[in-house]
Amino acid sequence: MGLACKISGHKWSGCLCERCGQTRDAGHFWDGCRCRRCGRVRDELHDWDGDKCARCGKKREVSSHKLDLDLRFLKIGHGE
Ligand SMILES: [Zn+2]
Ligand SMILES: [Zn+2]
Ligand SMILES: [Zn+2]
Questions:
Q1: Nearby residues for ligand 1 (ion, Cβ within 5 Å)
Q2: Ligand nearest 30 Cα, by number?
Q3: pLDDT tens digits, residue range 27-54?
């Protein structure tokens, strides 16, 4: 923490102190699952590209329920 922040408190701009660069868990600028300002990742609104999040790289299990649905759509797509 910088001296100015010690005396007058942090100069928060959302989750980031403009003066010393300290972050806090409030006021994030969420861009999907990742905060644009401090880079923090939350477990919501991932940008799934197949089984992987394009933003934070998190992997997910593709549920068999979804696969079943996809197969059903494929069958419909090919016609009777
Ligand atoms: Zn500060
Ligand atoms: Zn943030
Ligand atoms: Zn993500």
A1: 5, 10, 17, 19-20, 22
A2: 2
A3: 999 999 999 999 999 999 999 999 999 9
